[in-house]
């Protein structure tokens, strides 16, 4: 039986790759996509998600729009510098026009109804700011038992990408991230940018994807602005498909090697706002210094077979060539 998956997203080029990865995987039952502000405003992230599903021939999947701003404080800026003005390198309109309208229900309501109706636990892959997920866990505690795990793309163990300390998804709504990552409500995997950067793909990988068929060519066509940004970030010609790495773990549990660690999110207004503070100390030392046993932990993704991960994503996306 195909595993049930919901993606919460803010497309975004890497989000588009991630949605497509799930949409064309035959061992995944993609039962819903919810959208959130982030790389671009909510109207654009919702339109982009619907267009990517149309590209994949998956308009059976319902899409619901969610939070248009963070839980507490205004969002400082978008990520147009990486994803272009429309979130897809200015090429959103080149994707198919979707025939299915967004759901009239909001994202949290759709999440709650899908989970309530599920007969087995559902994996949720939040690959944008965590606002919708924080609201779901707070407002609908009864659905927590229906969540198998959250596989979250976000955070950084070393340095950030939006600020010196903050990775974009967590920095976009630190209060929501704190609620989700520190609450221990449901099992969670955190896929930080330290690992996703190491999974970056080169021009050869992209060329193989482009030549695999219409889906691969369409996805490659979305990357010019994103590639230009990552030429600066990486120092070489390539792309970091952050969100696709997290969705790969959602599809194939264990493709990433994780370690259970406490995670805190900095919600202050100094230069570390949005930082994910991962406690790598031994549990015994934590108990000695904090005077209490360790609390909730998150499975933080630390390692993977880099070539195997790249091949997994490429092979799955190439399956959508028809």
UniProtKB/TrEMBL annotation:
Q: Under what name is this protein listed?
A: Nucleoside hydrolase
Q: Which GO terms describe its molecular function?
A: purine nucleosidase activity
| BP GO annotations | purine nucleoside catabolic process
Q: Which GO terms describe its cellular component?
A: cytosol
The protein's matches in Pfam families, at most eight in alphabetical order, are given as: IU_nuc_hydro (PF01156)
Q: Does Hydrolase count among this protein's keywords?
A: yes
Taxonomy, superkingdom = Bacteria
Q: Does the keyword Magnesium apply?
A: no
User: Quick one: where's region Disordered?
Assistant: 82-101
Q: Residues in domain Inosine/uridine-preferring nucleoside hydrolase? A: 5-308
**Species annotation:** Amycolatopsis antarctica
Q: Which UniProt keywords apply?
A: Glycosidase, Hydrolase
């Amino acid at each position: 039986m195909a595993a049930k998956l919901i993606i919460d997203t803010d497309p975004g080029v890497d989000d588009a790759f991630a949605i497509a990865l799930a949409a064309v995987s035959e061992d995944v039952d993609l039962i819903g996509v919810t959208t959130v502000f982030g790389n671009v405003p909510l109207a654009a992230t919702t339109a982009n998600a619907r267009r990517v599903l149309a590209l994949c021939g998956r308009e059976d999947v319902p899409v619901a729009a969610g939070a248009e701003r963070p839980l507490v404080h205004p969002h400082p800026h978008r990520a147009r510098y990486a994803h272009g003005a429309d979130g897809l390198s200015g090429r959103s309109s080149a994707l198919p026009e979707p025939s299915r309208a967004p759901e009239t229900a909001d994202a949290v309501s759709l999440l709650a109804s899908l989970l309530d109706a599920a007969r087995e636990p559902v994996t949720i892959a939040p690959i944008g700011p965590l606002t919708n997920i924080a609201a779901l866990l707070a407002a609908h505690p009864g659905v927590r038992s229906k969540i198998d795990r959250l596989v979250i793309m976000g955070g950084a163990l070393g340095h950030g990408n939006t600020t010196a300390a903050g990775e974009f998804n967590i920095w976009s709504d630190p209060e929501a991230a704190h609620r989700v990552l520190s609450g221990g409500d449901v099992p969670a995997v955190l896929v930080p940018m330290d690992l996703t950067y190491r999974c970056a793909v080169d021009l050869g990988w992209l060329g193989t994807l482009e030549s695999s068929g219409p889906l691969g060519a369409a996805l490659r066509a979305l990357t010019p602005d994103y590639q230009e940004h990552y030429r600066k970030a990486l120092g070489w010609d390539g792309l970091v498909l952050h969100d696709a790495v997290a969705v790969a773990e959602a599809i194939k549990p264990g493709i990433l090697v994780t370690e259970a660690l406490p995670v805190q999110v900095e919600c202050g207004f100094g230069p570390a706002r949005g930082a994910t503070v991962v406690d790598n100390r031994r549990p015994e030392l934590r108990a000695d210094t904090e005077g209490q046993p360790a609390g909730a932990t998150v499975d933080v993704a630390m390692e993977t077979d880099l070539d195997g991960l790249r091949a997994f994503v490429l092979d799955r996306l190439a399956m959508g060539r028809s």
